[in-house]
Design goal:
The chain is of the alpha+beta class. Helices cover 46% and strands 21% of the residues.
Length: 107
């Protein structure tokens, strides 16, 4: 019984480790980080994978941060009722990216 629990525990840890590595590898390109954020925040998977996030050079230069936009037809409405089409992308450890919905940056 004890060996079975230990085996299940090891399998669970291995699965979680692989899942974390896959998520980190998925967020290496900034565009994929935007897609992952869309999925996490409730956008449909089809629209998340079909959209093509573009670097918004004008707003990025003006606000001094990396901003990406998606077309309006792929935008999604979050919990507060705001349509999200703008994302701020932060870089960690030189290659990993995290996207944050960025409606508040244009206010």
């Amino acid at each position: 019984m004890k060996r079975a629990l230990m085996r299940i525990k090891k399998t669970l840890y291995a699965f979680l480790g692989i899942l974390i590595i896959v998520i980190l590898l998925f967020t290496i390109p900034p565009k994929n980080a935007v897609r992952a954020t869309m999925l996490i925040h409730g956008a449909s998977p089809v629209s998340a994978f079909r959209c093509n996030p573009k670097y918004d050079s004008g707003n990025s230069r003006e606000l001094k941060m990396d901003l990406y936009t998606i077309p309006n037809k792929y935008g999604y409405i979050d919990d507060t009722g705001v349509r999200n089409t703008l994302f701020r992308v932060k870089t960690y450890f030189v290659i990993f990216h995290v996207a944050v919905p960025g409606v508040q940056y244009l206010s």
